[in-house]
Amino acid sequence: MHRLLTLLAVPLLLFSLAVPGSYGAVTAGGAAAAAPTATFTKTSEWGSGYEGKYTITNGSGSASSSWRVEFDLPAGTSLGTYWDALLTTSGQHAAFRNREYNGTIAPGASVSFGFVAGGSGTPQNCTLSGASCTGEDPGTPGAPGAPGTPAVTARTNSSLTLSWSAASGTVTGYRVYEGTSLRSTVTGTTATVSGLASCSTHTYTVKAYNTAGESAASAPATGTTSGCATGPLPKHFLTGYWHNFVNAATELRLADANAEYDLVAIAFGEATTTPGQVVFGVDPGLSSALGGYTDAQFKADVQTLHSRGKKVILSVGGERGAIQVSSPAAATAFANSVYGLMQGYGFDGVDIDLENGLNPTYMAQALRELRARAGAGLIITMAPQTIDMQSTSGSYFQLALNIKDILTVVHMQYYNSGSMLGCDQQVYGQGTINFLTALACIQLENGLRPDQVSLGLPAGAGAAGGGVVAPSVVTNALNCLARGTNCGSFKPPRTYPDIRGAMTWSVNWDVANGGGFARTVGPFLDTLP
């Protein structure tokens, strides 16, 4: 977040840095083989990771129109940037599929895609469009054709229902697989997989069968059961930051925050000379601007918001924040001091907004220590910049995944960032619906649950140096992510009805701009599934 008007320009050089190889060209050659193959090689390697490449060769006698390479990575190895393919992940399982320009492979030709991995583990259990990457026959002769791509059409706390289009040929029935494990056998084109844990994510493929054998596998479908713990906040909620300082925005007492905000983040807790320690008090300049606003009055306002059913958390960091948690001692100092402020002021949790870097190991330790003291009702939010969430190898993304079991939400700042990569590896400019949906997709498809993802936007003119959008763009983006409607040219690979909501910088800037953000986005969130 930014106290002053600043423009953080991210040059388009980021795009060239994110694609270290030049793969994907279709090349002819090679003797015909029985079936397509996908071959893995390491093109370069360093101490903490490597660059990997898969070459897909069509050894069959007919052209292919699409492909999908899936594999598992050992624990301790994670994917970073990738190119010439689209990626979805579920835990350590990765599924790459062709881009719009390299799905067709002529007989005897090949295409490639690549990725950067952190760690030393190499892909295991590789499949190419449902068959072995080594070229096993993708379907038994005489078996049906592959079913259509399944979709998750219903879910409960303990089940997921899939539907798909019928396979060609003579079909006796369909088998639903999770990896290599058979989960359901049906005669129709729908199946319900039961006995699942609440808030658990699963990826399935479907094969048709008859007396001759099984077809090739369908494309995968991923779904998450309901029952994800939403904590002390609504299923969909609006967050606003409140200024504990004076700038060009409107100064407000906390109790004057718009009632549409379900969660108010106090900006900011400050560092001391003790590493990790956080302190807070009403800013003297703000106190003077409000005619003598005291700590006691602020504490009373926190309780007023509580009486209205709202939650209040302390945000630490900001643009100028100097809090550093880079040792076990600093982690404990952070946990102890933030818990003390929660006790003293009535805060319900903490927001991590460290824009000058963080150590994911020790910050995770600090937050787990705080959770142990504050209990399961603790609210933990994060407000990374867009660059921080471009890859799971980034420190902020690592922190979010490391504390996924206790994390409330990530409301990334979709502003002050220039152009960035979306989950389809295309470049999108800030201030557009594509920017919001394609960048949210990175988090949604790489480990965070939909209820842990929220869209953070400026409230209006003056709140940021770039990326300001009309509130209707925010609601359209949420509709696109939750329902698959009102999208721009980018279409997410699936819908995310549990998408958590929106955040704005800030309560004060919204008032200065007429209150349109809270007045529009707040009521809209109540209409989401």
How far is it from the N-terminal to the C-terminal residue, by CA? 30 Å
Which class of secondary structure composition applies to the elements?
Answer: alpha/beta
Low-confidence segments: 2-33
Global morphology: elongated
**Rounded to an integer, what's the Rg over CA atoms?**
25 Å
Beta content comes to 25-35%
SS element count, helices? 10
Number of strands: 28
What characterizes the major β-sheet? 8 strands, parallel, barrel
What would the average pLDDT be, to the nearest integer?
88
Oligomer: single chain
Order of adjacent strands in the largest pleated sheet: 18-19-21-22-23-24-27-28
Helix content: 10-25%
Explain what this protein looks like in three dimensions.
This protein has 529 residues and is α/β, with parallel strands linked by helices. The chain has ten helices and 28 strands. It has an eight-stranded parallel barrel.
Q: TL;DR of this structure?
A:
It contains 10 helices and 28 strands. The chain has 529 residues and is of the alpha/beta class.
Task: Name some characteristics of this structure.
alpha/beta; 10 helices; about 525 residues; single chain; 28 strands; eight-stranded parallel barrel
SSE layout:
Elements: H1 13-18, E1 37-46, E2 49-57, E3 68-72, E4 78-83, E5 86-90, E6 93-97, E7 110-118, E8 124-128, E9 131-132, E10 151-155, E11 160-163, E12 173-178, E13 181-186, E14 190-193, E15 201-210, E16 213-214, E17 221-224, E18 237-243, E19 263-271, E20 278-279, H2 284-289, H3 295-307, E21 311-318, H4 328-345, E22 349-354, H5 360-374, E23 379-382, H6 395-402, E24 409-413, E25 419-421, E26 427-429, H7 433-444, E27 453-458, H8 471-483, E28 501-505, H9 507-512, H10 516-525
Parallel strand pairs: 18-19, 18-28, 19-21, 21-22, 22-23, 23-24, 24-27, 27-28
Antiparallel strand pairs: 1-2, 2-7, 3-6, 3-8, 4-7, 5-6, 8-9, 10-11, 11-14, 12-13, 12-15, 15-16, 15-17, 19-20, 25-26
